[in-house]
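User: Show me a protein chain along with its predicted structure.
Assistant: Here is one chain, sequence first, then structure tokens.
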Amino acid sequence: MEKLIKPKIAIYDFTDCEGCEVAIISLREKLLELENRLNIVDWRLAQEKKEQGPFLVSIIEGTPITPDEIETLKWLRENSTYIFALGACASLAGIPGIVAKEEREKFYKQIYGENYKPVGIDAVPLSAYVKVDFSIHGCPVNPDEVVRIIEELLAGKKPAYRGCSVCFECKLAGNPCRLVFGKPCLGPIGQGGCNAICVSGGSPCYACFGQREDANIPALIKILQNLTSREEIERYFTMFYKHMPEWQEKAKELLK
């Protein structure tokens, strides 16, 4: 009987907390089931083996901030049919992207001392350097979403985002609307898929799953301006959107 050739998958991480990869490991038995249908040949965090590409898909966590990371990312792009960004750091620059490039040297010295020689350039999304075929959003990612997207890929389908906002999932969870009660929230423009975990836990939504299609940013900003200050609105948007067109071309302009 001819041996079934399973597609090769690589999982890489750049500058990050590795929380999204830990979320994948937490799948346990489900991860083993997926591995029966694919061949994870390069995953530093979970295995010792390391095979060369080409890969069907490279799943990448973190933002590339050093020259070596940038070169590795470009190599993965050349040797992968698909590139998937894993988590907010990879897809949106995440928490590392909050610090502006011009301010990095100041913070390096403040944290590591005057003699520290930084190698980081800037924290930007993977898409700043290469084409990204799909983003598995989240901070961290929802493990069930990872399974859904990989299963769609293995079934020969083009992975798709959920057609709802975080607001829909908030209603399913029985959460009172933060905006109705005068509290800032980016839920209306945020893609669903997180099960509204932050709001359910008492925190606001910063739309870490990315912007949903047809999001009405001007309408949301108009609501937020009646609830809080310009500085607070900017803080909400720049938590994950500082390097994204959604902020630079729309929200930032509306707040002038």
